[in-house]
Design brief:
Layout lengths: L2 H19 L1 H35 L2 H17 L6 H10 L3 H11 L5 H8 L7 H12 L3 H22 L19 H38 L2 H8 L7 H12 L1 H10 L4 H14 L1 H11 L7 H30 L11 H30 L1
């Protein structure tokens, strides 16, 4: 039996035991995951997946890729169309970067090697989660959400630049872009995009419920507390260690627990930056499910995410004095209109507006044709 099969079988047996041993807690955890999927994930992610699929099927993404080739090729050693999963992955969060990369690969617009490279830095947490949930909801300061978003973006860029050196001997490819779709094919593209979005959302929901139940099972047997005790030699509190261990499985719960731990704010937020950039095993399962039809190396994908997470946490740790200095000047806790929040949001929004401008130009160019 393969090692991976043994681990999966062990996890399945453990989950069955927990369902029989703690039925009320497990049912509550599963119901909470279902509610999260229906009220948060489905309404926000479904239209985004459908819209991205439609843009790909009508050829707008390819036009945009041609325009952004002078930026993406020197920086990352990738074709211009790689900007599509990178920026849209940041706009919408997990696992949109992976989903768009899979779409591009299925349309033969990317090689396997290029897809592997893009996945190393283009599947990232979204702004609504970082600013709203983590920044405001957990830490009570929107500026920290903007800071996490900025450091996640910088970490992804650094990972993408360094990852190109792993692609030894690769040669630039000249991608051809299909002609504009006819009126009849637009209807077909819309139907295919909606169907694909439904399938993807159902897959994400399944992983969300499964890992929500698994996380609750581990919580019921105090596994996270046990892991934190094993790491007693580290200069961290038990609450911080437990929160970080929990976040490796599911990042949202880990970030919440770290917001309550007694250690220094700089360290806790740097650890949160690592967790949200890595995504946790729950996001990893969702991503690999989306990428099931792409022959990528799972180990290389995990290495890329770890590299991304390390860069993001280091950026946050070193930039924290600037964030902290300006947070002290901030006014109301729930005000988004502080000077620092505006500055950080501007630093992230500027490249986003540039990307949207290029995308709109590509769509309008197709209309003229």
């Amino acid at each position: 039996m393969k090692k991976s099969s043994f681990v999966l079988g062990l996890c399945a047996c453990f989950l069955l035991y927990a369902l029989l041993r703690f039925p009320e807690a497990m049912l509550a955890a599963s119901a909470e995951s279902v509610q999260l999927w229906l009220t948060k994930v489905f309404p926000s992610l479904f239209p985004f997946i459908a819209a991205c699929g439609l843009l790909l099927r009508i050829g707008a993404a390819e036009r945009m890729g041609a325009a952004l080739r002078p930026l993406m090729r020197p920086l990352f050693g990738l074709p211009g169309i790689a900007a599509f999963p990178f920026f849209l992955g940041i706009f919408s969060g997990y696992p949109m970067g992976a989903k768009i990369t899979a779409m591009l690969y299925e349309k033969k617009l990317l090689t396997t090697e290029e897809a592997q490279h893009i996945l190393a830095f283009s599947n990232n947490p979204g702004p609504l989660f970082l600013i709203g949930t983590v920044g405001v909801g957990f830490f009570g300061m929107p500026v920290f959400g903007y800071a996490l978003l900025l450091c996640s973006f910088l970490g992804a860029v650094a990972t993408g630049i360094l990852w190109r050196f792993r692609r030894k001997g690769s040669r630039p490819m000249s991608h051809t872009y299909p002609a504009a779709a006819s009126a009849s094919s637009v209807t077909e593209a819309l139907s295919a995009s909606v169907a694909d979005a439904v399938n993807t959302i159902l897959l994400i929901g399944g992983y969300l419920i499964l890992f929500g139940a698994l996380s609750e099972a581990m919580e019921q047997i105090n596994l996270f507390s046990f892991l934190s005790r094993l790491l007693f030699f580290l200069p961290l509190s038990a609450e911080t260690l437990g929160g970080f261990c929990s976040g490796i499985l599911e990042m949202t719960n880990g970030a919440y627990l770290l917001s309550l731990s007694p250690d220094g704010l700089r360290l806790r937020l740097a650890l949160v930056s690592f967790l949200v950039s890595f995504g946790g095993l729950s996001i990893l399962g969702q991503t690999l499910g989306v990428l099931a039809d792409i022959p990528i190396s799972k180990k290389d994908y995990v290495k890329g995410k770890v590299m991304n997470a390390l860069f993001s946490s280091l950026f946050f740790y070193f930039f924290f004095p600037f964030f902290q200095q300006n947070v002290q000047k901030a006014v109301p806790v729930f005000s988004f209109f502080t000077e620092t929040a505006f500055t950080l949001s501007f630093l992230w929004i500027l490249p986003s507006l540039f990307f949207l401008g290029v995308l709109c130009h590509a769509v309008l160019l197709k209309r003229k044709e």
